[in-house]
Design a protein that fits this description.
Layout: H1 3-40, H2 46-86
Helix pairs in contact: 1-2
Length: 88
């Protein structure tokens, strides 16, 4: 195994806990937004409808961000898993 490969593997392993922590934090944020949507839905009055719309838009954006972080985490975990499984 080359020195550059060893360094890359060590760097990916070191980055994984941080990526998982960011993912956990973002999942908690999305959970809070989902709870808020549950609290506001269904909108009955126009003022509630406006608040519901704003929270829904934010929720959609946070789901997009969460999805991106999940993909990044999965990619990092699969790289580490492949390296461990193959002995590389």
């Amino acid at each position: 195994m080359s020195t550059s490969t060893t360094f890359l593997k060590a760097r990916e392993l070191e980055a994984l806990p941080e990526a998982l922590a960011r993912l956990r934090g973002h999942a908690a944020l999305v959970r809070t937004l989902v709870d808020e949507v549950d609290r506001l839905a269904p909108p009955v009055r126009s003022s509630e409808a406006a608040r519901f719309s704003a929270v829904s838009a934010q929720l959609a954006e946070e789901f997009r961000r969460l999805g991106s972080q999940i993909l990044e985490c999965a990619a990092a975990m699969s790289r580490v898993g492949l390296e461990v499984g193959t002995g590389r």
